[in-house]
Amino acid sequence: MVSYKQIVASNALINDGTAPRVSVFVGGTSGIGRMTLQALVTTGTSMKIYLVGRKSSEQRMQAFIADLYVINPKVEIIWITAEVSLLAETKRVCEIIKGKESTVDLLFLTTGYTTFGPRDETTEGLDICQSLGYYSRMLFTLHLLPLLNRAEAPKVISVLAGGMERANINLHDLGLRKPGSFGTIQCWSHNITMTTVALDKIANENPNVTFIHSAPGWVNTGNVNRGNPNWLTGWFVWLVLEPLIAILSFSDEESSQRYLFQSTNAAYGGRGVPWTGQPGVNTRGTSDNGLFLVSSKCDCISNAKTLGVLRETAQEKVWEHTLETFQPYL
C-alpha cells in the first residue's frame, strides 16, 4: 500500500516540470473528476485544462472555474459543452482539442454511473451506461492518442474498477442487446473487463503512453443515485447504500490527493515526480510504460490469470466489436 503520508509528500513536490501542461477532463463536473481537477489546479503550476461537460452543468461549472482562477491565476481552463454519451459528440470534442493542441499530457476519464434499471439507449443505439463507462472513454483515447504520443510523459487514467475483470464476459453479445443479457452486474462487469482488455492492447501498441485503469474504492460521489429508475431502488440506495458509502468511503480530500498522485508520480511508468518506493508493475509484468491496474490504495494489481485468459479468448473480439461500433466516429 502507498501510504497517504507518502502521497501528500509526493504531491507537495509537483512543479511546472512535473505537472501536466495540457489536460483533458471528461467527467470533471462532479465526483472524482472534479475533486482531482481542483487538486491539480491547487498545486499552483502553469497549465491548460479542457473541461468537458453537459449543458445542464455549464452555469454551475463556470462559477467553479472562476473560483479556480482565484486559487491559481496561472491556469487556463477551457470549457466545452457536450453530451459525451453520444459518440458523435465525443468525436466533435476531440476535433476541437486536436485543432488547438499538438500534445496532451493527461486524459482523465470518469464519466458514468451504476444502472439499476433496464437498457436506456441513446439516439445512437447504445445503452447510456455502457456508452459513458466504455465506448465514449475509448473513443476519446483513440482520437487523442496522436497528441498523447507527442507529449513527454503522457498518461491516460480511466477511473472504474481496474483489477476486477472477469474472464466470463458475454462474447456473443458484447453490446448486451439480446433479451436477458442486460443487467446491473452484467453492464458493470462488461465495462470493467472491456476497458482493461482494450487498454491492454492499446498500451502494447503505444509504449510512449502510460495507461491506468483505476479502482477508486468507496468514494461518496453521489453518482449512485443517477441510475435509479423507480422509487424502490431509490429507497434502497437512500436507506442502505448511501449510509454504507458514508461510513466506508475516503474523504473527498484523500480521494483527490490519491488521484493527483496517480496523475503525476513516476511510480507508474517511471516519469513524473520521482518515486523512491516500490515501482508499479503493469499488466505485462514490467515497470515500463504500459497498462497499470491500480487499486484504491494506489497499489498495482496483476490479475494475471484472468488477463491471460482474456488475451487468448476475448481481446480480439472486444477490439473488433469496438472498432465496428466506432466506424462512423473515427
UniProtKB/TrEMBL annotation:
Organism, by scientific name, is Stachybotrys chlorohalonatus (strain IBT 40285)
Any stretches that span the bilayer, and where are they? none
Q: What is this protein called?
A: NAD(P)-binding protein
Give the InterPro entries listed for this entry: NAD(P)-bd_dom_sf, SDR_fam, Sec_Metab_Biosynth_Oxidored
Which key words are in the record?
Oxidoreductase
Keyword Oxidoreductase carried by entry:
yes
The organism's place on the tree of life at top rank: Eukaryota
Keyword Oxidoreductase in annotation: yes
GO molecular function annotation: oxidoreductase activity
The record's listing under Pfam families reads: adh_short
